[in-house]
Design brief:
2 strands; 66 residues; single chain; two-stranded antiparallel ribbon; mainly alpha
Amino acid sequence: MDKSITSQAFPNEYNYGISKRDYFAAHAMQGMLASCMGWSDAEQERLARTSYKMADQMLIERESDE
């Protein structure tokens, strides 16, 4: 199994899929969005940054799991 940070999630014969970083960030964001409605622009920007920070940390932990 490819555990590299640059590997793709759900590749197939037609495309490379999305990056695992984007996939993890989307799920982190989904969880945070489920807890609150009516985000301001500043909160949305912070949420996006935080989602990618969480995704980056998930990828680091995934790499060190071996």
